[in-house]
Amino acid sequence: MRSVEDQQIKVTAAAVAPRPVRVAISEAQGLLCAEDVVTERPLPGFDQAAIDGYAVRSVDVQGAGADIRDEDGEPIDLTLPVVGEVAAGSRQPIRLQPRQTVRVDTGAPLPTLADAVLPLDFTDGGRARIKVYEPVRSGDYVRRIGDDVQPGDIAVRAGTIIGAAQVGLLAAVGRDKVLVHPRPRLSVISIGGELVDIDRTPGPGQVYDVNSYALAAAARDAGADVNRVGIVSADPRRLRDVVEGQLVRSEVVVIAGAVGGWASEQIREALAGLGELEIARVAMHPGSVQGFGRLGRDEVPTFLLPSNPVGALVVFEVMVRPLIRIALGRRHPMRRVVRARTIMPIASMAGRRGYLRAQLMRDEQTGEYLVQPLGGNGSSHLLSTLAEANSLIVLEPDVTEVRTGDEVPVAFLAQRG
Question: Which of 347, 350, 359 shows the shortest CA–CA distance to 392?
Fold first, then answer.
């Protein structure tokens, strides 16, 4: 029986990242940047107001707020005339003279000679003339040209996952397209004479095709571009034709169903002309029996997963998902693992690494992680428990029993909510 690590090494060695492509920045979110984006212009491109207020020469308002009085002992207000107004987007140049001010909106270009902006709260908000209550220093409330990015700076580095902030920065520096590692294309096929699609009513001995829908969703969650082929006949010629067609358009192919016994031998024989598909027993549960090979001219990684939806999803999580993440260029393809204290006993199968569905929680008072297993040893077929799970407890082959209160490693699944 092959270890999980050995099977993972065999699988991930087959990962091939699609060639980088240039896409519109609106389509780049969630992808890995494949180039250093070097800026050609400063950002901001001009000195601009960082707040609504009044553009001033800072030297003209230094006395504001001081206790200055005239010869009769009366307090002297510092006032300035308002000689204009500049809105954001204005292209009309204005030159500020000494002891004058101009009303400016946030983002408006700063008048020539102005070196600061008085916030409205520092004044009485006058339209023709303002009283100044507090001083500002040179550069206060001003976004200087190139404060954010200078020409020649790298706005987004290769290897960065492009999120909302990166899309915004690319737009800010005038880039409409960016080179990215595209999503690997993955095809999902279901095999089984007992299967019917969800738009039909199952007859005697028939069940809905769960796997193609569940595995397609898991692949999208992992970051793949998915083609759900659906149910395909196990007729050798038909199966070969379908798989061969998907190998041309995919970086990964997943076939669910008939993974053990005579049925899997039929599938292997049907696909023999496309390459070797090895059926192996892996020291894990559920999903011990699984198939993997490189098929077609491009040696496309191809998986044969159990017909049991829970086993298929667990094998996908352990074997297929890391391959997708590597193909996306992610440096850390595995799920985050934490240590959590169990709140009930756990039993696991000897000699196999257990991947047990669980709910991970956190104690509000101590911050400690707590984990509750879902289902028991005899419930590996129950899809409802997997739907409730937000994590997998991972138990090594030599661990058969875990007591309440023991710590175990727990892998986060995709967060819900």
Answer: 359
DSSP 214-249: HHHHHHHHHT-EEEEEEEE---HHHHHHHHHHHHHH
The kind and range of the H/E element at 21 are strand 21-24
- Regarding beta strands 142-143 and 48-49, do their DSSP bridges make them parallel or antiparallel, or are they unpaired? antiparallel
Secondary structure of residue 178 in the 3-state scheme: strand
Contacts of 15 (CB under 8 A, 6+ apart): 301, 323, 326, 327
Neighbours of 74 (CB within 10 A): 8
**Which residues of 152-276 form beta strands (DSSP E)?**
154-156, 177-181, 185-191, 195-196, 207-208, 225-232, 252-256
The one-digit pLDDT tens for each residue of the chain (417 residues) are 999 999 999 999 998 878 899 999 999 998 999 999 999 888 888 999 999 999 999 999 988 876 665 555 556 678 999 999 999 988 888 899 999 999 999 999 999 999 999 999 999 999 999 999 999 999 999 999 998 889 999 999 998 999 999 999 999 899 999 999 999 999 999 998 889 999 999 899 889 999 999 999 999 999 999 999 999 988 889 999 999 999 999 999 999 987 777 777 888 888 989 998 899 999 999 999 999 999 999 999 999 999 999 999 999 999 999 999 998 888 788 899 999 999 999 999 999 999 999 999 998 889 899 999 987 544 555 666 667 889 999 999 999 999 999 999 999 986 543
CA gap 97, 94 in Å, rounded: 10
Tally of CA atoms within 13 A in the half-sphere of 252 that contains its CB: 37
- Two tokens, residue 8: 């993972």
- What angle, rounded to 10 degrees, do the helices at 236-249 and 261-270 form? 60
**The residue count for the chain:** 417
Q: Are 223 and 244 in contact (CB under 8 A)?
A: no
| Total-model pTM | 0.76
Q: Judging by DSSP bridges, how do beta strands 78-86 and 177-181 pair with one another? A: unpaired
- CA dist 212 and 218 (Å) reads 10
How far is residue 384 CA from its own chain's centroid? 26
